[in-house]
User: Which sequence fits this backbone?
């Protein structure tokens, strides 16, 4: 069981992510659109993975409006950026857009919305979490 942070401003999508990840995958899910809270949870090690909506409309970081790309980049530049994966969730599913989004955000992967295949969502999250687990086991101890 992992701790998943979902940053989503649409209540229907937020509920969908929460239900699918908690019921199908048995993860603990926290949903927010508060950028400051999300960054704090990410930086202090309270989460194992993030699902980030690209088009956030009511999210602020230190009083400045941010979208999911900017918030993801801020997270990845923090102390847990190398170890806590971020999965972008977006309706902008054109291949060139997605490659640009991944570069701009430093996120680890993306999934297209609307989410209609719940197993695909769970698989995407599990793949990212497994990569992190493998990475942790390959880091030599001092």
Assistant:
């Amino acid at each position: 069981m992992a701790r998943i942070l979902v940053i989503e401003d649409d209540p229907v999508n937020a509920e969908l992510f929460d239900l699918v990840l908690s019921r199908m995958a048995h993860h603990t899910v926290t949903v927010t659109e508060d950028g400051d809270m999300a960054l704090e949870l990410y930086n202090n090690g309270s989460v194992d993975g993030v699902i980030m909506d690209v088009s956030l409309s009511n999210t602020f970081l230190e009083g400045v409006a941010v979208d999911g790309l900017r918030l993801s980049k801020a997270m990845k530049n923090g102390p847990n950026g190398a170890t806590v994966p971020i999965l972008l969730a977006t309706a902008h599913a054109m291949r060139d857009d997605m490659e640009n989004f991944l570069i701009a955000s430093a996120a680890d992967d993306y999934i297209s919305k609307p989410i209609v295949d719940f197993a695909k969502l769970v698989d995407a999250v599990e793949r990212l979490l497994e990569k992190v687990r493998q990475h942790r086991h390959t880091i030599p101890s001092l």
The chain has one domain: 3-138. The two ends are 28 Å apart (CA to CA). The first helix runs from residue 11 to 24. The longest strand covers residues 3-7.
